[in-house]
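Bumping with the actual sequence this time:
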Amino acid sequence: MALRDFFGRLRGGSAPQPVPEHPQAEAPAPLQDAPLPEPEAPPAETPPPEAEAPAKTGWFARLKAGLSRSTAKLTESVVSLLHKRRLDDEALEELEETLITADLGVAASRRIVEGFRRTRFGKEVTDEEVKAALADEIAAILEPVAQPLEVIPARAPHVVLVVGVNGTGKTTTIAKLGRHYAEQGLKVGFVAGDTFRAAAVEQLQVWAGRTSARFFAPSKPGADAAGLAFDALSTARAEGLDLLLVDTAGRLHNKSALMEELRKIIRVIKRVDEAAPHSVLLVLDATTGQNAVQQVKVFKEMVDVTGLAVTKLDGSAKGGVVVALAQEFGLPVHVVGVGEKAEDLRPFAARDFARGLMGLD
């Protein structure tokens, strides 16, 4: 089932130790306390939001407001650069540098500038023409990746493995998606697979209660995540659940250990359903900017990422990174988030995002 009704419904280096293959294996050794490889650590996840009354403003207005910091960073620089100026070679070179600085990435920035060169080279352009033209070029990059997350009822349950660095919003994204699908009449299950982080388990348990979702918790802190996933999927099939959202650890300070844990989860659940996981959703925090690009590369090494969710756009001046991700990886961007309320996570729409990023209605 696609998220087509979302808009109406939600308004308002040491080698790792061998890992046992048995689904009820002992808990893996605690991960090492070495520093993260990324240049900046993502902030801690916030608790799940309370259920909210329907919003009084439309989604596009909230998206545009959420992107305001990114808009200011991008448009002020571009408009100042090109105001009443001919688009000659020097101007276009400066434009490319400006777009790269605004987190659109080298490849996407070059593509946008080449579009300007073909259609507007040698011309003077107004501020509004610059914004509109940029929005069109950005939308052209984003359109191919604006794809909803489809839940296939025939799979029963459709298993979504949710991955990402801790602090990106994995747990709250699971909660919001679960609420949506529960409102659509699907039977939903949450698996608290980040077994070392008590806060993540507690968040999911609270949301399971709010959404009447089946909750699968570890027997103890640090319990084997693969064994938990195996039991959860077996029970979900027996109980006729439609959707199973599986949270996972996100500690990259020992990448090889995390890679083994994720691979083990996948191996074990395939014993129950050879096709599972049916989707692997990577959650990214927009405030990390270009670090999100590196995170995609790392997680693609570990698992077969099938789609992206980009959160915390409202707290970031680096929303242009979505364009960089689309150009470099071409992975579907399923949903974006611009706030803590449940209705602030919505399907990704290319044209709306591009125009919102440029501050256009």
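The tokens above came from a reply further down the thread. Residues 128 and 352 are 17 Å apart (CA to CA).
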